[in-house]
Amino acid sequence: MIAASSPDGTNKNVPHQKFSEKDKSKHFGYDKQSGPAVWAKMFHLCGGHSQSPVKLDTTITVTYHHPRIMWWNYSLKPQAMTISNNGHTVLLRAKWARKEDTPYHWSAPSSEEYVFEQLHFHWGQDDHSGSEHMLNNERFALEMHVVHYRRDLGSVENAGLYDSGIRVIGVFFRISEAEHHNVGLQQIVQLLQTIRMANSTVVLLEPFPLSRLVPEFSNLYLTYNGSLTTPPCAETVSWVIRKEPLTISRQQVEEFRNLMSEDGQTIKHNWRPVQPLNGRTVIQIR
């Protein structure tokens, strides 16, 4: 994929510095004391020059008609699925009966396959804040991040050490003025009350295929090289942002806002402000 190439021409298979165990144990949040404004003091990578999220402006992007994304196994029902409140976000994980059934995607003509790891969400305290990326100066009520790792790197932990080792599919959700529920998302929303407290998990009795949540698209997306949007903020992420938002009802978003953090406060917002592009190119695929 175009975005998978290292922008400075370096070998993307040379590993970055590993995260220290000390960094992993540090607490972060979204308030003044532990929020994005002070992350770089605790996690040095958060002060880097290729950070995410960013503003996406379709009027100044470089436009191509390729590569197209090819999706595999997203319609297969997993054997097990859990939804957790980790104190920062809602996290969905799943396991398939056979390892080869795990959903993955690739972008022709590249042969690099990206395997599903987990998905999670970012939201805000009102209907016009919540998404981490901005699209043409618009913020959305919710943004879903579908996290994948490069198959040849073996795990998301190892992939996080290499340029474009991780790929995140970003999907925006805009409030439905007709107050229509998002049917796919409702399968998660209806369980949020059971994981209201931080560090709680629910096992789904009836797992569902990712295709109910993740819309398959081959084009009409934006891509750039960036970072994780939470500490340790590793700059090893190839971002793919779907241009067309999905819809969500106000009632559904409110259920996310009622979740509790590790500090016992409601998670009214969990998004990082946009970061400077610093000369990076955003590519638009039509």
Please give the structural blueprint.
Layout: H1 21-25, H2 39-42, E1 55-56, E2 62-64, E3 69-72, E4 80-85, E5 90-95, E6 104-107, E7 114-123, E8 134-135, E9 142-150, H3 156-159, E10 166-175, H4 183-189, E11 200-203, E12 221-226, E13 237-242, E14 246-248, H5 250-257, E15 283-285
Domain Alpha-carbonic anhydrase: 26-286
Enzyme class: lyase
GO molecular function: carbonate dehydratase activity; zinc ion binding
Condensed summary:
The protein is mainly beta and 286 residues long.
Description of the molecule:
This protein is mainly beta and 286 residues long. The protein has one domain (49-285): Carbonic Anhydrase II, CATH 3.10.200. 10% of the residues lie in helices and 27% in strands. The chain has 5 helices and 15 strands. It has helices spanning 21-25, 39-42, 156-159, 183-189, 250-257, and strands at residues 55-56, 62-64, 69-72, 80-85, 90-95, 104-107, 114-123, 134-135, 142-150, 166-175, 200-203, 221-226, 237-242, 246-248, 283-285. Strands 2, 3, 4, 5, 6, 7, 9, 10, 11, 12, 13, 14 and 15 form a 13-stranded mixed beta sheet that branches. The two termini are 14 Å apart. Residues 1-10 have low confidence and may be disordered.
Q: What is the CATH superfamily label?
A: Alpha carbonic anhydrase
What is the residue-averaged pLDDT? 92
- Distinct helical segment count: 5
Q: CA-to-CA gap between the ends?
A: 14 Å
Pick out the low-confidence regions: 1-10
Quickly count the domains: 1
Could you name the CATH topology? Carbonic Anhydrase II
| Strand and helix order | HHEEEEEEEEEHEHEEEEHE
Residue share in β-strands: 25-35%
Largest sheet geometry: 13 strands, mixed
